[in-house]
Amino acid sequence: MNTAKPSQWPENVEYIFSIKYSKNVRPETLQALITKPNTATTVKHTPGPCPRVRIKSITDPSHPAHDQHGLFASQHLAPSTYIISYVGYLHTKDEADSESNYDLSLDRELGIGVDATKHGNEARFINDYRGISDSPNAEFRDIWVDMGGGKCEKRMGVYVLGAGRSGKKAKGIAKGEEILVSYGKGFWKERNKEAWDE
Ligand SMILES: C[S@@+](CC[C@H](N)C(=O)[O-])C[C@H]1O[C@@H](n2cnc3c(N)ncnc32)[C@H](O)[C@@H]1O
């Protein structure tokens, strides 16, 4: 088994390769989260540090996440390239931690989220573009990860914005550039940053 961790991985967070399922998820919900629709995009499971990204501490005082970390491209990433999937603790609405800064909705209809506060991979370090760049250069998409042996896992995958969606960012993400998504207005509204109303 691959036990390597990415450089700069924090000691208080468990580095995981696949989702950790809460025992409170109902069997029929769990079944829906591991049953891939025929037409869905599938990505092969790849355990271990992702070669396309690098976690870096943010030392620039003008960066709004100064003194935290961010995720950067370790090679040029072409438009629409799959980068990494978001893993963490998969939980029900009732178990959601309203204080978490790492909780991503996986399936709104099923009321399921994935929280990477205590367990996660490099994707937990992706910052929001606001105050850093004019626009995001990456986005979350629904994916299914083929775990082998006929098993699949529904996850959120991070992709480089496609040429159609990204305008001037159609060249993809350059080596060394920070990977930035939009967390959505709701994330910042809940944290009282009303000024970032876009
Ligand atoms: C999912 S974490 C991203 C990784 C985080 N920077 C870290 O080092 O663990 C989300 C948190 O990162 C910070 N963050 C992300 N994007 C930001 C932005 N554009 N401006 C200010 N803080 C940001 C906020 O503290 C937010 O609650």
Description:
The chain contains three helices and 14 strands. The longest helix is centred in the first third of the chain and has 7 residues, at 27-33. By secondary structure, the protein is mainly β. Helix content is 9%, strand content 31%. It starts with 13 loop residues before the first strand and ends in an 8-residue tail after the last helix. A hairpin with a 4-residue loop joins strand 8 and strand 9 (112-115). It has one domain: SET domain (Beta-clip-like). A four-stranded mixed sheet has the order 2-7-9-8, with no helix packed on it. It has helices at 27-33, 163-166, 185-190, and strands at 14-15, 20-21, 42-44, 53-57, 69-73, 82-86, 89-92, 103-107, 112-115, 119-120, 127-128, 138-148, 151-160, 180-181. The model has no long low-confidence stretch (mean pLDDT 92). The chain binds S-adenosylmethionine. S-adenosylmethionine binds at residues 64-65, 68-70, 101-102, 124-125, 127-128, 130-132.
Fold topology:
Layout: E1 14-15, E2 20-21, H1 27-33, E3 42-44, E4 53-57, E5 69-73, E6 82-86, E7 89-92, E8 103-107, E9 112-115, E10 119-120, E11 127-128, E12 138-148, E13 151-160, H2 163-166, E14 180-181, H3 185-190
The protein binds S-adenosylmethionine (SAM).
S-adenosylmethionine (SAM) is lined by residues 64-65, 68-70, 101-102, 124-125, 127-128, 130-132.
